[in-house]
Structures are given as structure tokens and as C-alpha cells.
From TrEMBL:
This is Glycosyltransferase family 92 protein. It comes from Solanum pinnatisectum (tansyleaf nightshade). Keywords: Membrane, Transmembrane, Transmembrane helix. It comes from the Eukaryota. Residues 472-492, 509-528 are annotated as: Disordered. GO terms for biological process: cellulose biosynthetic process; response to abscisic acid. InterPro entries: KOBITO1-like (IPR044224). PANTHER family: GLYCOSYLTRANSFERASE-LIKE KOBITO 1 (PTHR46701). Residues 472-482 have a biased composition (Low complexity). The chain crosses the membrane at residues 27-47.
Amino acid sequence: MAGLYTSLRPQPPSSSSSSQQSFFSKVLLFLTILPLSLAVFAFFLQWRGGGVDDPISRWSPEESHKFPGMDSSPLATVAHSSQSSDCSLLAHTNTPSFPYYKDWKFKLHPDLKPKICITTSTSAGLEQILPWMFYHKVIGVTSFLLFVEGKAASPDVSKVLESIPGVKVIYRTRKLEEQQAKSRIWNETWLSSFFYKPCNYELFVKQSLNMEMAIVMARDAGMDWIIHLDTDELIHPAGAREYSLRQLLLDVPSNFDMVIFPNYESSVERDDIKDPFTEVSMFKKNYDHLMKDTYFGMYKEATRGNPNYFLTYGNGKAAARVQDHLRPNGAHRWHNYMKTPKEIKLEEAAVLHYTYSKFSDLTSRRDRCGCKPTKEDVKRCFMLEFDRSAFIIASTATEDEMLNWYREHVVWTDKAMNLKLLRKGILTRIYAPMVIVQGLRESGVFSSIVLSAQESLSKDKFLASFESNSSSKAAASESLPSRKIGRNQHSQAARRVLAESGSLFEFHDEAVPPRSPPGIDADVITEA
């Protein structure tokens, strides 16, 4: 019993167990003191500044407001762009999309290459021209040649445009018309089939004459590339190492004279679009960017009962190297008097065409043309079938009937069909233009431009410019009362007599008009 009792009594602690307890106590104390010490040290660094640089503060002032495609080095933004993603572009934030915006003038480095010029003929207002212009500035366009009339030529609009660096505004005055009346284009055959016709044909001739003048201006300004775009079109430089038109054209081999951008067409999902550049993200892809089986296999679903796959044109737009003997070949292409240009068609980049993206586009197109709303007469005025149908509807239907027709033929309301065509690749989502334009707006770029132009003009100067523009427009209207190019009776009669005798015209291949994409019948003929 004594032995049993002895074995059950607690034993005094040994020296080894005592040392273990002491070690654990020290470790626990160290782990407690360490985070407290680090917290105190961090507080001290914040209080004193600590010499720790904020990565943003290391950016130079010159670099802090640059956008993709604006740096003089083609590789400067590659590392940054490789880390970005579509998700980051779409992330919602309460801060402006361009938080480091500093100078809306976008002063580009004088040695920036290549230098890109865009020319356009427009009668639009600032609400359309400014987003269009500054989007292209962001992707690397250097200069703009704006041939303006209508609203675009009004003092409130034109003075703002003239205040923007890199922009040249050309008004449609009597002097301009007299100069264009002497153009060699009138003595050549490539555009002759479009002469003396109204509406779209007249516009096509006017655009070609303006492009001819723009080539000379671009060459004198030292431009490397020239592009003709309408103000409802945005270049989408997909496929470049960065979202940059400058980088895209920089990578084009030097032996190519012309770059073809296939066009994508806006596919609106609502009938109340007000600002297409920031509200439209769905586009129908061009035939050139689709597999043939996919295109023709989904042709019926993609066309939705309209005359063609696209509502309007499907043959894209082109950029041309500025070089000797360059000439326009209609609004969609360029040519050269001395050689056949060598061209390359891009596999990813495109022109985004925001056609009929607003319901008001129906009536605005109608108001610009005086043709009769009959199937025969509209053929004189419009080159494409959908434009003809839209003009007749806008001229004969009530407001409700027009809206119903617009919803049926233009608006993509069937979400299930949209999803199917998106999965097949017929439709695609493109968000970059939305993000860029919205970012420019949130950063105050557009409002700053308008305010800057207003502040730079005194009241007297503004009134003087108003009177000057009024007299210019009066002179222009006096020179062409019907706004018909080349309608001088004597010159027209003389040209026709000489044309019949074959002693005037220089013969060239016909200009490239706006063309619809391939149809089912065309493919059947090809296969046969």
C-alpha cells in the first residue's frame, strides 16, 4: 500500500519541463511585441514621410497624362497594356476613367511617327464632332482636316473647332467651289458616273473633291498617312500591340501603299439611343473577318429581312501613305495616277460604323434630300437599297409607323437571337470606344474645349467673326443656289459635248462606291 500511495503522489517538476515553459513564454512575448513594434514603426514612417515613394509620384508630369499611342516610343506602354484586361476597362468607379488627365490639347511630340491625318466632310454639331475627334486623338491621330458646312460651319461650332491644336477648318465658300470646279477630276472618267446626280451621289462627288484638296494639305503638313472618315465612324485598332492606330500603321511594311479597314456595323439594342459612342457596344462583323460557312450559314438570321447583310456599305475604309500622284478613288479608297497601289487588308482592326444608330437619323437623312419618295425616283438619289427604303418610310409614314419600322429593321430586341449570333461570332461586343469617350467626358475634356474657346474670343471679335461667316455662307449659297456641284449649265454642256467626242476625259477605272457585303445569290453564282 505504501508503494501504491507513493506512486500516486504528484512529483516535483523536473528541470527540463521548466525550461520548455520558459521558452514558450518568450516566444509568446516576442510574437506579441513584434506586430506592435511594426505598427509603431509604420505610424512613424507615415508621420515623417519615411522616404517611401508613391509609384504615381514617380511619374514625370509629361508622362502622367499620356494615353495609349501618344508616347514617342512604340514599346513604352506595352508592359502596362499587357497587364490590363477587358475587366479592368469595364470596372465601375466613382472617379473619372482618366484620373491623370491634365491637358485636353493633347500636344504630341513633334518627332512622333508616323503622322496621321484624318479628313472629313461634315455638317454635324459639337456633340458629335468633339467625341469623334478626341477619340482619334487618343489612339494617335495627329491632324484633322474638316470640310464644314451647315451646323458645323456656324460660328458657335467652327470657332471651337478652330481653337483645337492640329485642326484645320475649311469652309465651303465661293472661292473653294471655284477652285474645285477647276479640278482635273471633272476631266476624268473614274468619277464621271456620279456627276450631276442628287443626294448621295452629289455628296460622293463633294467628298472626293475635298479628299483631293486634303491630300495637298496633308503633304504640305508633313503627314505620313491620310484617312477619310465620316463623323459617325470610329477606327478600332485591334491587333496592335497597344490600342493605337499609330502603332498599327507603324507596323505596316514599307512596300504597302494602302491599308484597308473592314467595317463593322452598329447593332443597337434600344430605340432611344442619344449618344451612340457611349451607348452602343454591339456590332455586326464584316464578311472579311468571318469564316465563309459561318457568314452564309447565319445569313438569314443576321439579315432579319433587310435587303442586305449590312444596312449600308460593307467595303470598309482605307488609309493611304501620303506620296506623289496620290488621288482619291471615291470616299472609300485611294488610288495613284502613276501606279496601282499595293494594299493590305487588316485581319482584326476595323472601322466601327454607327449607322442609323439613332431614331432621328431617319428624318435627318430625309431632310437632306429632295427626291420624291417613290421606288423609281429614290434610285437617282441613293446607292444602297436600305437607304432607299428608309427614305420612303421617313417621307410617307406617321411617327408611330416610322418607330415600328425602325424597331423591326434596325433595333436588335430579340435577346435570344442576339446571344446566338454572339456565340457564332456574327455579332461582337466592343467596349474600348465607350470607355475612352466616357472617360474624356468625365475628365472634362469637351467642356474645357468649349469654355476655352469662349474665353479666347472677346465679344467684339466674336461678333466680327459672326458677320464674316454670314457673308461667306451668303457668297457660297449665291455661287451654288441648288447646292449641286458642277451644275453650271455652260460647263456641264461643254463637258458632255467633249465627252461624246472623246477629246476631254482621261480614262481610269471607276471610283469605288459604297458597296453592300456579299449576298446569298452572289455566293451561289460563285459556287456554280
